[in-house]
Amino acid sequence: MLKYLFDLLLFTSLFIAGCASMMVIQTNQLLHLQYNYIAYLVFVFFSTLCSYNFHWYLSSDATSENIRIRWTHNHKILHLVLIAIGALVSVWYFFQFIEHWIWLAGAAFLTFLYSAPKLQYGPFAWLSRIAVGKTLFLAFVWMYVTTFLPIAIDDHHWNMATVLFCTSRFMLIYAICIIFDYRDRDYDKLSGIRSMITYFNERGINNLFAASLAGFAISTVALYFYELSALTIVLLLIPGVITAVLYPVAKKNFSDYLYYFVLDGLMMFSSLLTIFIPNK
After folding, report:
1. Distance of CA 85 to the CA centre of its chain
2. CA distances from 90 to 97, 150, 154 (A)
3. What is the spatial distance between Cα 12 and Cα 8, in angstroms, rounded to a whole number?
4. Are 224 and 230 in contact (CB under 8 A)?
5. Nearest Cα to 260, choosing from 52, 77, 59?
6. Residues 6 or more apart from 88 whose CB is under 8 A from it?
7. What CA–CA distances, in Å, run from 207 to 138, 201, 237, 253?
8. Strand, helix or coil for residue 66
9. Can you tell me which residues the record assigns to a coiled coil (predicted)?
10. Would the pTM of this model clear 0.70, i.e. be above it?
């Protein structure tokens, strides 16, 4: 059993870091970016590994009775090892892009700020009382690292297509984050962590989810008029359709596998599709 749990944690961490890297590859491919993308992929993979494990290391008091939380509570050493490895490698590659330090520092600061309220002391505890946009914040961090930052580092492809692509990705991630927050809303209330999901009633949450998917669909379809083919647009829309179908299921089934592999995997699913089916 311990080996199974160890494998689950390790695989989950690698899977999430891999998702972020795949999303960067799609950004490079569809927007035709030109920079040292291999170094940036390594940076994103290990910085995601670090931040993901740091967040879960601080989440061992969660009340959710799932395998992930129980493992975190009893085996923090592995989290610390993954945090250390991720931090060392990402710091090394940070200096490969030192001329863009202000953008990279912004990503590090935003990532830390998301997990900071879980520290529960000093100014960090105060953040949990004002973090009404927690879900928006997380979606923005993912979009910033996987989409905005590569464009900023390239610095030659700012146009309407990049704006729409950033918007499309943000809205899809936000819709997925709403589902995660819906699952965690009772724990967030008990912990004093505020978000729109803890404020809204069931109908309000449903409307927010629908609005985010509508924003995703509109911004994605609009990309057809700025460079991307009809086939690519369809491939980009597929994860949104799957997310909509899974929404009522995920509100009742809180399985670790559904959340940490299926829903998280939807963030990069279109990346797999567009990488293997070229944009023509």
Report:
1. 20
2. 11, 16, 19
3. 6
4. yes
5. 52
6. none
7. 19, 10, 19, 20
8. coil
9. none
10. yes
- Say if residues 31 and 152 touch (Cβ distance below 8 Å): no
Phi, psi of 83 (to 5 degrees): -60, -45
Is the Cβ–Cβ distance between 149 and 142 less than 8 Å?
no
Q: Are 161 and 127 in contact (CB under 8 A)?
A: no
Question: Residues 42-72: pLDDT tens digits?
Answer: 999 999 999 888 887 776 555 444 555 666 6
**Per-domain residue ranges of the chain:** 1-275
Q: How many C-beta neighbours within 10 Å does residue 172 have?
A: 29
Three-state secondary structure call for residue 195: strand
Residue % of the chain over a pLDDT of 70:
79
Residue type, 102: I
What token pair was written down for 264? 């998280």
Q: State the pLDDT at residue 109.
A: 81
Q: Can you tell me which residue has the tokens 């995997």?
A: 265
DSSP 260: I
Q: CA-CA distances (angstroms) from residue 221 to 146, 173, 214, 233?
A: 20, 17, 11, 6
Q: CA–CA separation, 206 vs 209, rounded Å? A: 5
Look up residue 117 and give its DSSP letter. G
Q: What does R_g of the chain's alpha carbons equal in angstroms?
A: 18
Return the HEC string of 222-236: HHHHCCCCHHHHHHH
In CATH, the number for domain 1-275 is 1.10.600
In DSSP terms, which residues pair with 133 in a beta bridge? 195
